[in-house]
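FAQ
Q: What does a multi-component entry look like?
A: The components come first, one per line:
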Amino acid sequence: DIQMTQSPSTLSASVGDRVTITCRATESISTWLAWYQQKPGKAPKLLIYKASSLESGVPSRFSGSGSGTEFTLTISTLQPDDSATYYCQRYNTYSPAFGQGTKVEIK
Amino acid sequence: QVQLVQSGAEVKKPGASVKVSCQASGYTFTTRGVAWVRQAPGQGLEWLGWISGYNGNTHYGQKFQGRVTITTDTSTGTAYMELRSLRSDDTAFYFCAREGGDHLFDHWGQGTLVTVSS
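Then the predicted structure of the entire assembly, as tokens:
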């Protein structure tokens, strides 16, 4: 099975900073990559699909890029409400797999 | 609007079974699949399996094969996940999620805490 690995596991940044999270797949997954945001005690929320398509209603400060085996989620200007854990997910498969998550903390 | 409402928290003893429900509304149930994902306390997301809302076809994660069964009741727009032979490491939040196409999860239930303890 294809495995997904995220880095870093945690990051601490200030409001207004540009933040980048990386997700790597053990084999090429084309652009079948989604990003989710999860806040404590809540269900995950879809942010990005097809590696770079923004889900309706998601702020434009979130963007995704990449293809094949390496992908990034970027928050252009970090806001206090962005404090959460972010997960990448390989989809378009009967064995969808998640990365282990990246916790974003506000300094 | 699309909503997935799950049943309440459960406490089970090791070796028992649990069945969690997920009632969908706001869309035509038979046009989308439903997946189940779990999250142990402080841990990441783990996919258990998926069912087609159209024809009831299922796919399960290899780790859960033989221990999990996912079903639907199309008359009520409800999906169910049954996990058997529960162990303490099955203690987790269990989420249902609507498949928005290509096994992309675009709407999620609120989660159901299943606690396995003697």
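Q: Is there any commentary attached?
A: Sometimes. For this entry: Chain A touches chain B through 24 residues (CB under 8 Å).
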